[in-house]
TrEMBL record:
<dbReference type="Pfam" id="PF13833">
    <property type="entry name" value="EF-hand_8"/>
</dbReference>
<feature type="domain" description="EF-hand">
    <location>
        <begin position="62"/>
        <end position="97"/>
    </location>
</feature>
<dbReference type="InterPro" id="IPR011992">
    <property type="entry name" value="EF-hand-dom_pair"/>
</dbReference>
<dbReference type="GO" id="GO:0005509">
    <property type="term" value="F:calcium ion binding"/>
</dbReference>
<dbReference type="InterPro" id="IPR018247">
    <property type="entry name" value="EF_Hand_1_Ca_BS"/>
</dbReference>
<keyword id="KW-0106">Calcium</keyword>
<dbReference type="InterPro" id="IPR002048">
    <property type="entry name" value="EF_hand_dom"/>
</dbReference>
<dbReference type="InterPro" id="IPR044205">
    <property type="entry name" value="KIC/PBP1/KRP1"/>
</dbReference>
<protein>
    <submittedName>
        <fullName>Calcium-binding protein KRP1-like</fullName>
    </submittedName>
</protein>
Amino acid sequence: MATLGRDVVFEDFFPSMVEKLGAEGFLKELSNGFRMLMDEEREVITFESLKKNSVLLGLKDMRDDEVMCMLREGDFDGDGCLNEMEFCVLMFRLSPDLMDISRIWLEETLAKL
Ligand SMILES: [Ca+2]
């Protein structure tokens, strides 16, 4: 389990997904997740699109302040929305185990060079 802010708790199911899908498959899943949550016209995740589409990802109990908190945590350039890169970085940060796994990938990749 990973916590975001004080109240928002996400089930840390990423490591098992990575095991099942492999690194590339998992990144594709993240990208699909982004597309499910984004505003189709602006191609970024906004408060409205996250609120509307989070139901699709089984996050239907998210309150307004939790949605705001998630946007604030992930928004690096301060435009109030999440682009695909910001979304992926946020997902990685929410999953401490995933950080470990990505470090292992990196080490394996470097070892092959
Ligand atoms: Ca942003």
